[in-house]
Design goal:
The protein is an alpha+beta fold. Helix content is 43%, strand content 17%. The protein has nine helices and nine strands.
Length: 246
């Protein structure tokens, strides 16, 4: 047990060791005190992010609540019409599309999308917002559907988004997007020669649904949103392979 006499003897006879011991003690005491303060203020919380893992279903019931959403629209500063998202319909197409938008809005570095048909103006606006944040967007589309009525790929290409498609007669029928895929973020880090990159979460959005009005608001479709590493890595690898081959 240390007492005052022991500490005095240590300081007088072993000044260097005393400095180290007292310094370490001071640091430890200050850390304990700071943690006590944070605990009392409720600042210590579980910072582990929640999993992203859900299935979004689109079906014939998705539009039954459309009048609710668009009867009380609001205008954002950019002039965009934003529908009311208050709804009890579990199959609401507006809320379903909103879940996809929310993930796109969280993109930090990269969006890699392979979409057969893309006419959704809401998701096009989400891509525009991502580009304004500096997110690097790459899109693979089908060579025929890229020119279909209402396609948003031309609009995004005019803004500088890279768009590619296969020259083969077979369909590019994927409907997925990888957000901040590990492989792609690492590639961007090498290309930009950055020593440090912000922590990101890789998310995959994939399913049967085309990004169209009928896909989201009438057809029987599914969409999986997940941060599962095996799935995000697998889809990112396939996108990168297609991007090079196209």
């Amino acid at each position: 047990m240390w007492n005052f006499a022991t500490i005095t003897d240590l300081v007088q006879n072993h000044p260097y060791l005393a400095t180290v011991v007292l310094g370490a003690g001071t640091i430890l005491a200050s850390e304990v005190m700071w943690r006590a303060v944070k605990f009392s203020m409720g600042l210590i919380v579980n910072t582990k992010p929640l999993r992203v893992h859900e299935v979004v279903i689109f079906n014939e019931l998705g539009e039954t609540c459309s009048s609710l959403h668009y009867s009380n629209v609001r205008m954002e500063s950019e002039g965009l019409v934003v529908p009311d998202l208050t709804c009890d319909n579990p199959f609401c197409s507006v809320k379903g599309v909103g879940k996809i938008e929310q993930q796109i809005d969280k993109a930090v570095y990269a969006l890699d999308a392979a979409i057969y048909t893309f006419t959704s103006m809401a998701l096009c606006e989400a891509f525009k917002r991502a580009r304004q944040r500096g997110v690097i967007i790459r899109i693979i589309g089908d060579n025929e559907m890229v020119f279909c009525s209402g396609s948003q790929l031309g609009t995004l290409a005019d803004l500088g988004v890279q768009v590619r498609g296969p020259s083969a007669r077979f369909l590019m029928h994927h409907k997925f997007v990888v957000i901040d895929g590990v492989e792609r973020v690492q590639e961007i880090q090498r290309l930009k020669q950055r020593k440090w990159m912000q922590d990101t979460r890789s998310v995959l959005i994939s399913g049967s649904v085309n990004w169209t009005r009928m896909g989201f608001g009438g057809n029987w479709e599914n969409c999986i949103i997940t941060d599962d590493k095996l799935l995000t890595d697998s889809f990112q690898t396939e996108f990168s392979r297609m991007w090079i081959s196209f």
